[in-house]
Write a structure and sequence with these properties.
This protein is an all-alpha fold and about 160 residues long. About 70% of the residues lie in helices and about 0% in strands. The protein has six helices and no strands. Helix 2 packs antiparallel against helix 3 and helix 3 packs antiparallel against helix 5.
Length: about 160
Protein backbone atom coordinates (compact mmCIF):
# COMPACT_ATOMS: atom_id res chain seq x y z
CA UNK A 1 0.00 0.00 0.00
CA UNK A 2 2.84 2.40 0.78
CA UNK A 3 5.77 3.23 -1.42
CA UNK A 4 9.34 3.22 -0.24
CA UNK A 5 9.61 7.00 0.09
CA UNK A 6 8.02 8.80 3.05
CA UNK A 7 4.71 10.43 2.21
CA UNK A 8 4.32 8.59 -1.11
CA UNK A 9 1.69 5.93 -1.69
CA UNK A 10 1.83 3.18 -4.26
CA UNK A 11 -1.57 4.10 -5.65
CA UNK A 12 -0.37 7.61 -6.50
CA UNK A 13 -2.81 9.37 -4.21
CA UNK A 14 -1.71 12.15 -1.93
CA UNK A 15 -4.53 11.55 0.56
CA UNK A 16 -5.98 14.96 -0.27
CA UNK A 17 -9.01 13.88 -2.25
CA UNK A 18 -9.72 13.85 -5.95
CA UNK A 19 -7.01 15.98 -7.51
CA UNK A 20 -4.85 15.77 -10.59
CA UNK A 21 -1.89 13.46 -10.20
CA UNK A 22 1.61 14.40 -11.20
CA UNK A 23 1.23 12.25 -14.32
CA UNK A 24 -1.87 14.22 -15.39
CA UNK A 25 -4.45 11.52 -14.58
CA UNK A 26 -7.30 12.09 -12.17
CA UNK A 27 -7.03 10.55 -8.72
CA UNK A 28 -9.67 7.93 -7.87
CA UNK A 29 -12.97 9.24 -6.54
CA UNK A 30 -15.84 7.58 -4.77
CA UNK A 31 -15.50 4.53 -7.01
CA UNK A 32 -12.25 3.73 -5.19
CA UNK A 33 -14.37 2.95 -2.11
CA UNK A 34 -16.21 0.11 -3.87
CA UNK A 35 -13.91 -2.70 -2.67
CA UNK A 36 -14.31 -1.54 0.93
CA UNK A 37 -18.09 -1.23 0.69
CA UNK A 38 -18.86 -4.34 -1.37
CA UNK A 39 -19.46 -6.60 1.64
CA UNK A 40 -21.83 -3.99 3.10
CA UNK A 41 -23.90 -3.67 -0.06
CA UNK A 42 -27.11 -4.98 1.53
CA UNK A 43 -26.97 -2.56 4.45
CA UNK A 44 -26.15 0.35 2.14
CA UNK A 45 -29.10 -0.53 -0.10
CA UNK A 46 -31.29 -0.64 3.01
CA UNK A 47 -30.00 2.79 4.03
CA UNK A 48 -30.81 4.12 0.56
CA UNK A 49 -34.32 2.63 0.80
CA UNK A 50 -34.82 4.20 4.23
CA UNK A 51 -33.68 7.53 2.79
CA UNK A 52 -36.27 7.27 0.02
CA UNK A 53 -39.08 6.38 2.42
CA UNK A 54 -37.99 9.16 4.78
CA UNK A 55 -37.98 11.64 1.91
CA UNK A 56 -41.46 10.54 0.90
CA UNK A 57 -42.60 11.09 4.49
CA UNK A 58 -41.07 14.57 4.45
CA UNK A 59 -42.92 15.35 1.23
CA UNK A 60 -46.21 14.17 2.75
CA UNK A 61 -45.97 16.42 5.80
CA UNK A 62 -47.02 19.69 4.10
CA UNK A 63 -49.97 17.93 2.48
CA UNK A 64 -51.09 16.61 5.85
CA UNK A 65 -50.67 20.04 7.44
CA UNK A 66 -52.96 21.39 4.71
CA UNK A 67 -55.54 18.73 5.61
CA UNK A 68 -55.32 19.74 9.28
CA UNK A 69 -55.76 23.41 8.40
CA UNK A 70 -58.73 22.67 6.13
CA UNK A 71 -60.31 20.61 8.89
CA UNK A 72 -59.86 23.52 11.30
CA UNK A 73 -61.36 25.99 8.78
CA UNK A 74 -64.33 23.79 8.04
CA UNK A 75 -64.74 22.89 11.71
CA UNK A 76 -64.52 19.25 10.72
CA UNK A 77 -63.06 16.34 12.68
CA UNK A 78 -59.36 16.88 13.55
CA UNK A 79 -58.48 13.50 14.98
CA UNK A 80 -57.75 11.69 11.70
CA UNK A 81 -55.60 14.38 10.00
CA UNK A 82 -53.65 15.13 13.20
CA UNK A 83 -53.01 11.42 13.85
CA UNK A 84 -51.86 10.95 10.26
CA UNK A 85 -49.52 13.94 10.54
CA UNK A 86 -48.18 12.75 13.87
CA UNK A 87 -47.64 9.23 12.50
CA UNK A 88 -45.72 10.55 9.49
CA UNK A 89 -43.55 12.89 11.59
CA UNK A 90 -42.69 10.23 14.18
CA UNK A 91 -42.19 7.57 11.50
CA UNK A 92 -39.83 9.82 9.52
CA UNK A 93 -37.85 10.55 12.68
CA UNK A 94 -37.58 6.85 13.54
CA UNK A 95 -36.54 5.95 10.00
CA UNK A 96 -33.93 8.73 10.04
CA UNK A 97 -32.52 7.44 13.32
CA UNK A 98 -32.37 3.88 12.02
CA UNK A 99 -30.73 5.09 8.83
CA UNK A 100 -28.02 6.99 10.74
CA UNK A 101 -27.44 4.02 13.05
CA UNK A 102 -26.98 1.60 10.13
CA UNK A 103 -24.68 4.01 8.35
CA UNK A 104 -22.51 4.59 11.43
CA UNK A 105 -22.32 0.86 12.15
CA UNK A 106 -21.34 0.16 8.56
CA UNK A 107 -18.69 2.88 8.64
CA UNK A 108 -17.20 1.44 11.81
CA UNK A 109 -17.11 -2.02 10.20
CA UNK A 110 -15.34 -0.61 7.14
CA UNK A 111 -12.82 1.18 9.34
CA UNK A 112 -12.18 -1.90 11.49
CA UNK A 113 -11.62 -4.15 8.49
CA UNK A 114 -9.41 -1.59 6.75
CA UNK A 115 -7.30 -0.96 9.85
CA UNK A 116 -6.90 -4.69 10.41
CA UNK A 117 -5.82 -5.28 6.81
CA UNK A 118 -3.41 -2.35 6.80
CA UNK A 119 -1.90 -3.25 10.18
CA UNK A 120 -1.39 -6.81 8.94
CA UNK A 121 0.29 -5.41 5.82
CA UNK A 122 2.55 -3.22 7.96
CA UNK A 123 3.57 -6.18 10.09
CA UNK A 124 4.71 -8.05 6.98
CA UNK A 125 6.81 -5.19 5.58
CA UNK A 126 10.57 -5.74 5.54
CA UNK A 127 12.45 -4.45 8.57
CA UNK A 128 14.33 -2.04 6.29
CA UNK A 129 11.04 -0.29 5.52
CA UNK A 130 10.43 0.29 9.22
CA UNK A 131 14.00 1.52 9.69
CA UNK A 132 13.49 4.23 7.05
CA UNK A 133 10.53 5.75 8.89
CA UNK A 134 10.14 7.35 12.26
CA UNK A 135 8.51 5.28 14.97
CA UNK A 136 4.74 5.40 14.69
CA UNK A 137 4.56 7.13 11.28
CA UNK A 138 3.02 4.16 9.51
CA UNK A 139 0.46 3.37 12.19
CA UNK A 140 -0.37 7.05 12.52
CA UNK A 141 -1.01 7.18 8.79
CA UNK A 142 -3.24 4.10 9.00
CA UNK A 143 -5.24 5.73 11.79
CA UNK A 144 -5.69 9.04 10.03
CA UNK A 145 -6.51 7.49 6.64
CA UNK A 146 -9.12 5.16 8.07
CA UNK A 147 -10.65 7.98 10.12
CA UNK A 148 -10.97 9.91 6.87
CA UNK A 149 -12.57 6.84 5.29
CA UNK A 150 -15.15 6.79 8.10
CA UNK A 151 -15.91 10.46 7.50
CA UNK A 152 -16.44 9.85 3.79
CA UNK A 153 -18.78 6.91 4.39
CA UNK A 154 -20.90 8.74 6.97
CA UNK A 155 -20.77 12.28 5.59
CA UNK A 156 -23.42 11.62 3.00
CA UNK A 157 -21.54 10.91 -0.22
CA UNK A 158 -24.30 8.37 -0.88
CA UNK A 159 -26.92 11.13 -0.45
CA UNK A 160 -25.22 13.19 -3.15
CA UNK A 161 -25.10 10.13 -5.42
CA UNK A 162 -28.85 9.59 -4.99
CA UNK A 163 -29.71 13.24 -5.67
Amino acid sequence: MWASQPGQRLDGMSGQGRQDRQDGRRAPGVSALAPYLREHRGVLLSVAGLALVGSAGSLLQPLLVRRVLRAVQSRGPLVTPVLLLLTIVVGAALLGGLQRYLLQRTAEGVVLRTRTRLAEHLLHLPVAEHDRRRTGDLLSRVGSDTTLLRAVVTSGWWKRRAA
